[in-house]
């Protein structure tokens, strides 16, 4: 058996349970956007780590070192946002091919530092080592949160509405532009910018976790078709999603028309949007929608509802059940 046969999550399943007995009361390990490490009676640290590898997660010829520095930290900050926490510290480890120019590394650190400054999150340590020929980037971020405000994937309730912040699919559209070497016009460049410069939803996550009606929450890194399954598995619920309700920017709609992209597929399975996916008590949705809109530059969209039943997503279009590519993004699959 090879890793591609079982995938990332199949691999994790083989060993995760062996650590359960070592994990203390109120601590939480593998299985959510962050681990929980209680700090005192009322607060907890949340910790996340991400690994980015050249040619797997990024193409060095397509992203500037400054954007790469930004994105390396942004993807981890997004996991902090997903818990409803604020970031405190980061750690950065790099595996660097020795012919890499110092100017490249300076620009990388510049992008990393600028985003650190924006969220008052100092770099506290890490490691730098030689790598044979690919650049490797590992980021750890520690955040903090009131225990009562932590939002987990396991918190979805029957009848909850399923919501997302912002738009879906822009980042995947940007990746399409890069991989197809499409002409860089104003429109295509904006999509590429979404792909290279994701903005972590820290403020939005903190605000949402302050609302009692917001139940489960996570960030969208692989696309809702795969990410929502994590909420459904953890909460032991089913979901109905209406593809007509997926928030797709007019920018992506225009580009999809122009290049014959499937915008529904990009919005549901494209990934790297780093928006928040959460479930809400439907009685509070109007107030939540209004208050969110008055505080932030974008909106929340209702895309479906949580149902009783085994963990699966049913997709609907104009009331009719449809099937879409549900594979999401498996890092070890053949294609
Ligand atoms: Mg996440």
* CATH hierarchy class name of the largest domain: Alpha Beta
CATH architectural group of the largest domain: Alpha-Beta Complex
Total E-strand runs: 12
Q: Order of SSEs, N→C?
A: HEEHEHEEEHHHEHEHHEHEEE
- Helix and strand composition category: alpha+beta
The ligands found in this model are: magnesium ion
Average pLDDT reading: 93
Which blocks of ≥5 consecutive residues have pLDDT under 50? 328-335
Span between termini: 18 Å
- Oligomer category: single chain
> How much helicity do the residues have?
25-40%
Radius of gyration: 20 Å
Major sheet details: 7 strands, mixed
CATH-defined fold name of the largest domain: Phosphoribosyl-aminoimidazole Synthetase, Chain A, domain 2
Strand content: 25-35%
List the helices and strands and how they pair.
Layout: H1 3-15, E1 35-38, E2 43-53, H2 65-83, E3 86-97, H3 102-118, E4 123-131, E5 136-146, E6 161-165, H4 170-179, H5 186-196, H6 202-209, E7 214-219, H7 224-235, E8 238-242, H8 250-259, H9 263-269, E9 276-280, H10 285-295, E10 300-307, E11 313-317, E12 320-322
Parallel strand pairs: 3-4, 8-11
Antiparallel strand pairs: 1-2, 2-5, 3-5, 6-9, 6-10, 7-9, 8-10, 11-12
Helix pairs in contact: 2-3, 2-6, 4-5
Magnesium ion (MG) is lined by residues 33, 79, 82, 218-219, 221.
Pathway: Cofactor biosynthesis; thiamine diphosphate biosynthesis; thiamine diphosphate from thiamine phosphate: step 1/1
Binding site for Mg(2+) 3: 33, 79, 219
Binding site for Mg(2+) 4: 33, 48, 79
């Amino acid at each position: 058996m090879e890793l591609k046969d079982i995938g990332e999550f199949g691999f994790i399943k083989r060993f995760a349970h062996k650590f359960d007995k070592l994990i203390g009361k109120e601590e939480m390990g593998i299985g959510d956007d962050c681990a929980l490490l209680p700090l005192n009676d009322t607060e907890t640290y949340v910790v996340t780590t991400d690994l980015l590898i050249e040619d797997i997660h990024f193409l060095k010829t397509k992203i500037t070192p400054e954007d790469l520095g930004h994105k390396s930290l942004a993807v981890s900050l997004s996991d902090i946002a997903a818990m409803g926490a604020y970031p405190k510290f980061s750690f950065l480890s790099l595996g660097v091919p020795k012919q890499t120019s110092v100017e490249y590394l300076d620009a990388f650190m510049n992008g990393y530092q600028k985003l650190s400054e924006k969220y008052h999150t100092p770099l506290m340590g890490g490691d730098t080592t030689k790598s044979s020929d690919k650049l490797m980037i590992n980021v750890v971020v520690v955040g903090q949160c009131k225990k009562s405000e932590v939002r987990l994937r396991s918190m979805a309730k029957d009848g909850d509405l399923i919501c997302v912040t912002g738009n879906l699919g822009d980042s995947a559209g940007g990746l399409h532009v890069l991989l197809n070497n499409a002409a860089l016009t104003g429109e295509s460049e904006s999509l590429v910018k979404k792909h290279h410069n994701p903005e972590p939803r820290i403020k939005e996550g903190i605000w949402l976790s302050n609302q009692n009606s917001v139940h489960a929450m996570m960030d969208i890194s692989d696309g809702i078709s795969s990410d929502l399954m994590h909420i459904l598995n953890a909460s032991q619920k089913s979901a109905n999603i209406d593809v007509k309700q997926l928030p797709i920017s007019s920018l992506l709609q225009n580009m999809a028309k122009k290049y014959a992209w499937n915008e529904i597929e990009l919005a549901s399975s494209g990934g790297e949007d780093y928006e928040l996916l959460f479930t809400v008590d439907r009685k509070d949705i109007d107030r939540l929608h209004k208050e969110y809109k008055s505080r932030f530059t974008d909106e929340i969209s209702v895309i479906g509802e949580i149902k009783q039943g085994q963990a699966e997503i049913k997709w609907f279009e104009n009331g009719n059940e449809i099937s879409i590519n549900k594979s999401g993004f498996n890092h070890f699959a053949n294609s």
